[in-house]
Amino acid sequence: MTSITATRLATILGPWRSQSPAYAALADRIRLVALDGRLAHGTRMPAERDLAAALGLSRTTVAAAYARLRDAGSLESRRGSGSFVSLGTRPAADAAVDGIALDFTKAAMPAAGPVAACFAAAAALIGPELSRSGYEITGHPALRGAVAAHFARRGVPTDPEQILVTSGAQHAIALLTRVLATPGDRALIEQPTYPHAIDALQAAKARPVPVPVDVEGAWDLAEAEAAMRDATPSLGYVMPDFQNPTGASLSEDERGRLARAADRHGTVLIADETTMWLDLRRGPRRPLAAYSPAVVTVGGLGKLAWGGLRVGWIRASRSLVARLAQSRTSMDLGTPVFEQLVAVELLARERDLVAERRTRLADGLAAMREGLAEQFPQWTVPDPDGGLALWLDCSPWSSSELVLGAREEGLALTAGPRFGLNGAFEGRLRLPFTDSPESIRAAVGALRRAADRHASGPLAEPLVAV
Hints:
The protein is α/β, with parallel strands linked by helices. It has helices at residues 6-13, 22-35, 48-55, 59-71, 115-125, 141-153, 169-180, 195-203, 221-231, 252-265, 318-328, 337-348, 350-375, 399-408, 437-453; strands at 75-78, 82-85, 102-103, 163-166, 186-191, 207-212, 235-238, 268-272, 296-300, 312-315, 389-393, 411-412, 428-432. The chain has 15 helices and 13 strands. The strands form 4 sheets. A 7-stranded mixed β-sheet has the order 4-10-9-8-7-5-6, with helices on both faces. Helix 3 (48-55) crosses helix 4 (59-71). The radius of gyration is 22 Å and the shape is globular.
């Protein structure tokens, strides 16, 4: 059973007050952090008295908030055991609940055109595999070779023995943090960043050391270097290309500077390249692994081809691949062979996939920018070089208030704090432009209605400093 302390919950909630009564605003914020995964289903909540003390409230206010959550089915109380987060039968990551017509919680596209043909091609090749065991801990030789060739084409010579095939990029990140971090280790991480990277570090009981990334595309590399020198993190997680959620990319000089600093201080950098292909106009840049043999690279086809194809990979030294394979056996016994054969076919069509995705994303970005200019003319809307989403300053609204209001309009979004640590980014909102222009325009309209009817305007408390 998982429990959360009152102090920790207060940090996760961030600045939660609004123009609603305190008990209602608190209940709404607890419900939101459960819906977006910051509070897991079944988590034991703090006692009313403890949470009241942590938040500086009366116990009556917290009791009323808990009662409101119980009435909504978001909290279950058991006599003698306490109160527990309840999400019904659906996991927190699944926002497609009743009444949600537009799911913009996932920055992902439907399957690309070539995917169906690649499944058919893989089906024609599966016959000989059926006479083998089907257990491929490090990955099918054909896919390991195809991924190694992918890196070689990009200027990073790679042997197939340096590749470990995983069941998606998220699986790769979780496996790496499990092997590279021990409880209490410090881990460098971007702020903001991919939420499931935060989850993986927390699962490994590592202590995150945040490095700011701004919407204009600038990493605070001086702070990153200082953090590596002073905190000596055992590992670091970065997205060098079209970072999630900002869309920022490291320049060639910044890649070299970051890699050299990590080498000096013994920090293993994990470079997440899942968004690397999603370039609208920037042009290619060398992989971070080109600057240091110690860089570990994570990749996958979920963003390029289809999220339903759970195939990813890790490029690392042979010795680390061996350690990862050994650790993996306690989690799973390999990625399904059929999906790996599909991935081989998709990598052979890489250019076609990139061209198709570039067109779709360019259309989606144009529709999103046009819609926001019309509906939210006071917002400054970025024009990223690539990626999947806009990272917006949603002032004067709280992103959490906008997200809760949008759900009542049939639109599911993820609030800014899900992408940061300690309640940061309440004034930011991620809006994916991966859907069709028609759906994007409908989503922006729903967001406008949420802002007009449900969001209370400026925060009653100052934003968390980042």
